[in-house]
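Batch queue: ligand-bound targets. Current item pairs a single chain with pyridoxal-5'-phosphate. No template structures supplied; prediction is de novo from sequence plus SMILES. Inputs echoed for audit trail.
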Amino acid sequence: MVTENTVLGKTWGEWEEAFPIVAEIRALRETGWQNREKRSSKEAIANCELTMADVLDANKRLERFAPYFEAVFPETASMGGIIESPIREIPQMKNVLEAQEQRGLPGKLWLKLDSHLPISGSIKARGGIYEILKTAEEIAIRHGLLHEGDNYRMFDSQTFRELFSQYSVGVGSTGNLGLSIGIMSAKLGFQVTVHMSADARQWKKDMLRSKGVTVMEYESDYSVAVTEGRKLAEKDPYCHFVDDENSQTLFLGYAVAALRLKKQLEEQKIRVDREHPLFVYLPCGVGGGPGGVAFGIKLVFGDAAHCFFAEPTHSCCMMLGMATGENHRVSVQDFGVDNITVADGLAVGRASGFVGQLMRPFMSGCYSLTDERMYRMLAQLADSENIYLEPSALAGMYGPILLEKLPAFREYVEREGLTDRLAESTQLVWATGGSMVPKEEMERYYWKGKELLSE
Ligand SMILES: *Cc1c(COP(=O)(O)O)cnc(C)c1O
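Prediction returned. Tokens below.
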């Protein structure tokens, strides 16, 4: 018996006719989408509900907490209590990819090592930690324990921990957000519950439990873990639920990255302007991380920056929502795609509606890649540059290749008048996680990649 499924009142066939990319997505083929609704950054910024003032406010808050971080997370002391990752040029990897693709890659290839962010070893150390700090600050002010000009080292005290122990924090996660929220909340003294989806790795659950975090496990995927967590938290006025799908706070925590990136590029004497464009490739799950970072980058670099989102073929929810214009109203599962991927950080079937809508005038495009390609690039990066990332974090690495390989992206480059500028471009791949993956697990990833490369 053949039954045609329908989504929002239209059959799969009708969707495919209206949006040919839906057929590609359904067939699990690697594909890409260019955003024809991207606006000039000036216009996009003028119409956006969030502003540079919001990002600067978030940055200030993180600076206020720096003395506390120096005290309680010694690994941040060398950076004055600021949680930041380095950028690094990866010319050997560029050679490897060029040899494999038998084509030159444009410009210079750089890696942003959020994989090595202190405290939780992933991009979630930006948004996740920031939201907990903001929550803690608000509670402390409300209780009269904190005043303007105070040194935030006092958050590391019995008084503060006792105050926060009356409050709880909840979050739904595929793993890394839970790790960030769990570690930070527990350190401040909150009671914290992390609702983990089926993709979450065992070592992440074990690590959280060892820090006194309550971990609830779900058989189903990320959306269910979030919904259940949200429901439980709603009943409790002393519980703050970190809503990965809708949180502006998380988003702004991520956006601060752009201010720091600007300084890092200047230090490396890398120019970013119309003649020297910056291309950024960001692995995307629900969208908050890449969305926040890309938003910040567009605020800082304007039309000189071009941001692409990268997703697994089995979980390309942002591309589906953007290409159809339906955002969070459609999920990959609606179209018969299973949302099963080794890239656990990206195993999300339905994108954030808030991020999709906000990013529409800013984003350059989206693309998808297979798990096998992520594994292969993981091994290639390890061999060529001695950098070890988790599979999710390799998603961005395919972008610089696609810029000239994929017809939709070639067209984007032409439309933007960038053809002659690619040679002078900076290609920045955002490596979103990996430094905390246990050695044995990393070895399995690596050998899987080697095996695929030898086929
Ligand atoms: C969470 C995560 C992402 C994507 O962030 P979203 O906010 O879910 O889009 C990318 N890479 C890794 C390793 C992650 O953990």
